Amino acid sequence: MSADAQPEKLALAVAEEVLRTIYGDDFTGCTVRPETIAPIILEAITQSATKDKALLDLYEKVVEGIDLLSTPPKASKVADANALRSLLGERLDAIHVITTQTIGATGRLKS
Fold it and tell me: Domain of 30?
């Protein structure tokens, strides 16, 4: 079964359930076939899945970035306390940029 077949089956099942809810189990009086409604439902499912994937990709990048920034530097890379303070300040600034951009991106995805 292809990855596309699952959303199509779900859309058809939802279309059938909608018609069953409106017309009853026997579809008496229904002039619309589930196959006619399923593409409309599939479009909604696809749009939602696209947003979900974008959000998951963003989440992965944020976690990777914060993990990289939160990894302690090797002792050989830090000469003295001032160098460590400077490095930590740069990393905190980078974390702030990442979180600010993430807040903006998630806000755009929600709308």
Answer: 5-110
Report the amino acid identity of residue 96. H
pLDDT tens-digit readout, 66-79: 999 999 888 888 88
DSSP 2-62: -TTHHHHHHHHHHHHHHHHHHHTTTTTT----HHHHHHHHHHHHHHHHHHHHHHHHHHHHH
As for how many domains the chain has, the answer is 1
Which pTM does this prediction carry? 0.63
CB 39 within 8 A of CB 62: no
Is residue 62 within 8 Å of residue 44, measured between CB atoms? no
